[in-house]
Design a protein that fits this description.
Length: about 300
């Protein structure tokens, strides 16, 4: 019984409020997943400055400031580090591939939990609201955010096992439910050269989607392919730098609600996470249909 929330802003005047709105949404879902949480923010100018790539890390044996210095020497550009225990966030004016490769080479024991030009991923264990406040999420800005409160069922309770799983550039996936055939799909992906960081069934879904996107499939088609391939009970919220999508399995026993206005699109596991959003009284509110993919694109 996990909790999902997500917010896609259409109105740029709301961008400074993204983190505060997302924090309130996450707070409403704490009782659905009290053991750990994760958040992803698109476009925050502190964590993901325009023109710079960002990498988020867990389990780094080197503090953020020291690692940033090492990477600066390696890359020949200034790398900035943020220590958001247990997550480290690093950004620099290089390509996402270059920064990610340099991070992996410098701290091979660390786990990359997010990377891209606009994306910051933050994960930790404990009360989700406490984590959000400790990370500084209420002060974050940007055009899109997703968050997840986890009640572990398929793998260990660790920060690394929390969602979102962000395994492709500027891509995130959060999940309520479980995949029943994920091991066979994982083996197929491994035979195709895909590597995994955890035993979590959600990572299999994220790797599957990332592989389709890397091969040129659009997000809607990738999620239709997921529906055809995966068995189980699931509600998924999947995002990248310009899209925000929701899909459910054929039975749809895992709750989901969507609200949409001219200023924003929001999704949550329960309505109470949406009740505080500006203009909610005039929103179009609906439950997503089974196996139908809903996608919104950034203009």
């Amino acid at each position: 019984m996990c909790g999902i929330v997500g917010l896609h802003l259409r109105d740029a005047t709301l961008y400074p409020q993204l983190g505060a709105l997302l924090t309130d949404m996450l707070d409403a879902m704490c009782d659905r997943g009290p053991d750990s949480a994760g958040m992803a923010v698109y476009g925050d100018p502190t964590w993901s400055p325009e023109g710079e790539a960002t990498v988020s890390l867990l389990n780094s044996p080197i503090p953020a400031a020291e690692l940033a210095h090492i990477l600066s020497e390696h890359l020949g550009v200034t790398v900035t580090g943020h220590d958001l225990e247990p997550t480290l966030v690093l950004h620099a004016a290089v390509t996402s591939d270059a920064l990610t490769a340099a991070v992996r080479a410098s701290v091979p024991a660390a786990l990359v939990i997010g990377f891209g030009d606009d994306l910051t991923v933050l994960k930790g264990m404990g009360n989700p609201t406490d984590l959000a406040n400790r990370f500084g999420l209420p002060r974050a800005s940007g055009w899109q955010g997703v968050a997840h409160t986890r009640m572990a069922t398929e793998s260990a309770v660790t920060a690394a096992g929390s969602h979102p799983f962000a395994v492709g550039p500027d891509q995130c996936l959060v999940h309520n439910g479980s995949f029943s055939n994920h091991m066979s799909i994982k083996h197929d992906l491994e035979r195709a050269g895909v590597s995994f960081d955890s035993e979590n069934d959600t990572e299999v879904g994220a790797r599957f989607v990332a592989k389709q996107l890397a091969e040129g499939v659009d997000l809607e088609k990738a999620l239709l392919m997921l529906n055809e391939t995966f068995d189980g009970f699931y509600t998924l919220l999947v995002s990248n730098r310009d899209s925000f999508a929701v899909v459910r399995d054929a039975i749809s026993c895992k709750p989901a609600i969507i609200a949409e206005t001219d200023r924003w699109v929001a999704m949550a596991s329960e309505y109470r996470a949406l009740a505080h959003l500006p203009g909610i009284d005039n929103a179009r509110i609906f439950e997503p249909e089974p196996e139908e993919v809903y996608v919104w694109h950034r203009q």
